[in-house]
Amino acid sequence: MPTFKVAVLEGDGIGPEVIGATLKVLEKVSELSGVELVFERGLIGGSAIDQRGTPLPQETLRLCLESHAVLLGAVGGPKWDHLPTEKRPEKGLLGIRKALDLYANLRPVKVYEPLISSSPLKEEVARGTDFIVVRELTGDAYYGEPRGVFLEGGKRVGINTMRYTEEEIRRVVRRAFELALQRRRKLASVDKSNVLEVSGLWRQVVQEEAQNYPEVEVEHLYVDNCAMQMVRRPSSFDVIVTGNLFGDILSDEAAVISGSLGMLPSASLGDRYALYEPVHGSAPDIAGNGVANPLATILSGAMMLRHSFNMHREADLVERAVELVLERGYRTPDIQSPGCALVGTEGMAREVIRALEELWR
Ligand code: IPM
Ligand code: MG
What we know:
Number of strands: 14
Distance between the termini: 21 Å
Largest sheet: 10 strands, mixed
Bound molecules: 3-isopropylmalic acid, magnesium ion
Radius of gyration: 20 Å
């Protein structure tokens, strides 16, 4: 019987709640499939700052390096907002992405028909949206040097560096092409090559790689135009590939199309390691109330089954179970609509497990 070890990093805010719900679903998957999943916990973010004095303790990193996959909740909160950039909870997340070389961040965006009225877009625009943002995750202005606030002639100047090597671009672009091959064979590459040299290189590398994937239809968009097209014709996109900073911004915009940030999972993949986390943050305003939507984390768990453990059938069934629960009208407050049954975090997980057991037969 295969065994997989998962490093579980709950983090802050609603992190522990949505992770708790997801582990119950994964335990059910393990029971039904006979694949053993071993969960081991580690500290990250604000809770790690409080208990260990650093957002990414060495022991957490070691645990991640020894595991088959990492499942993460969320980091951050007002308690740590006063800290300098270097010491903030977010640094734990940025540190782990870099340390595990998780360069390809997959953020699937899907409009579920039962939730379509929650989308801020008109139903006829939102309907059928099903694309995936592939965001580069270990380069760009997030990590480029030089960075900092310096003095120039007695005046402060803030500097960050947007930087990509061609190999950094190539490896994430290849992942995006490979993904497009498994989907509707359309790739949109997003840059700002009318202004930025680094984007000019990005576009060139995409054009070079396109030669190796003649079956994939490639479209190049400037990031400002992409932000607009995403709300005008979201259903026309299949795979979108872009750099770290543009991807951060576009993926939040994309997320809201689906109706709630509480629905969106993500996978961060490198050549050796992988980390799975919901796209939403730690939501300190609702933390501890048992009302957070666990579906984004449960769906991240499904991505883990698929990408890290090759458990494709199980991943499909978890995703199908989530859809079934939505069709049956169960809603957490963020996606509540008239006539639906309001449930909390645990209630939602229970319904997913019930649906999963039914679908399994
Ligand atoms: C995200 C988040 C992070 C990012 C923050 C929390 C550092 O916004 O994962 O999109 O900017 O990458
Ligand atoms: Mg973000």
